[in-house]
Amino acid sequence: MRAAILITGGAGFIGTNFILNWLQASPCKVVNLDLLTYAGNPANLASLRGDPRHILIHGDICDAALVRSILAEHRPKAIVHFAAESHVDRSIHAPGSFLRTNVEGACVLLEQARIYWSCLEPSSRLDFRFVHISTDEVYGSLAPHHPPFTEASPYAPTSPYAASKAAADHFARAWHHTWGLPVVITNCSNNYGPFQFPEKLIPLMILNALQGKPLPVYGDGLQVRDWLYVDDHCSAIRAVLSHGRPGEAYNVGARSERANIDVVAAICDLVDEMAPRAAAAGPRRKLIAHVNDRPGHDRRYALDTSKIVRELGWKPSVAFEDGLRKTVRWYLDHPAWIENVCTGAYREWLEQNYAARPDA
Ligand code: NAD
Ligand code: DAU
Question: What's the 7 CA to ligand 2 centre distance in angstroms?
């Protein structure tokens, strides 16, 4: 039988990119367990229709019986756990689903993985990996001149989203420490690229700029994020899967810190260049509108990635300016995808999140 890996959340942004990248290079089957929430889009994987290497299972990671049966049937050699509620603003509006999916769901997966792994024959048990995909937000917020977070930095999450991811990381470590489950954790910075749902900064700004709508920058816009092109995140996960040491965590980032306002200005300029509009309408930068800040907004994230560079030989390959250009191009080239995700529920979310944020 062909070897398999189990991916959770593979119809979301990073999971989709990971599966498409993985199947370009590997004959290994991908079993994709995804609840297809608003963020999960099976159309992302339409190019794999008919490919026996990809199996999409519509289901919930909190469903222990389902997870057990998937493991028993497909006998994966690894699990890469992406599935999560991932948007900070939504975690402020409605934290309940973050607790359920990000914490309870992670525990269900860890426990079912442990039961499955403990019954494997010794050589398969040695090779098995559970890669838990986490975030830099677990470390909290950095002041402008503080050194970047290392894997030894204390956890200090501030938003409900970050708290739920931090809790899941602790559970993942506990399953390794208590039972020896070969868990490896990745803590990654902000991703961007194709297939990202337009609730997040970069795709939201691209779409609004294209449509001539206001570009809502929270507060002063001087918050800093480290932007990693999604393909580079995928290559880091593959490196961790192959060579990451069980029980360890690896920071993954681009060392590409940018203030939000600079990211938005760069998007405006690219959209002006690639989708010019009538001179009378003026440059897209005129659409920038400072709005009320996100409550508890983290000021800066930055990661020291020397561990993954040193131990696994991984480094990012896409410069921010190139990645951003490719990303704008992708959204320009995929109007049907945009139409498909901009549903009534999406418009309701925009109303809920932005109506309460008049210009600051
Ligand atoms: P996303 O919101 O685009 O996708 C999440 C996917 O999980 C969706 O396909 C959704 O349907 C699925 N899902 C949600 N609840 C589920 C459940 N109960 N059972 C099964 N599937 C469920 O998220 P993303 O941006 O692709 O992030 C993927 C992972 O990477 C998350 O764990 C996130 O915390 C982490 N991460 C994201 C970033 C980023 O910048 N996007 C950075 C670092 C880490
Ligand atoms: O750091 C990794 C994290 O990055 C991931 O773990 C999360 O899943 C992912 O959503 C992302 O979190 P952020 O909150 O940093 O991403 P977001 O795209 O929502 O916002 C990026 C920055 O832009 C942040 O400082 C808030 C700001 N912002 C965002 C939106 C949606 C705005 O100024 N205006 C907006 O409309």
Answer: 24
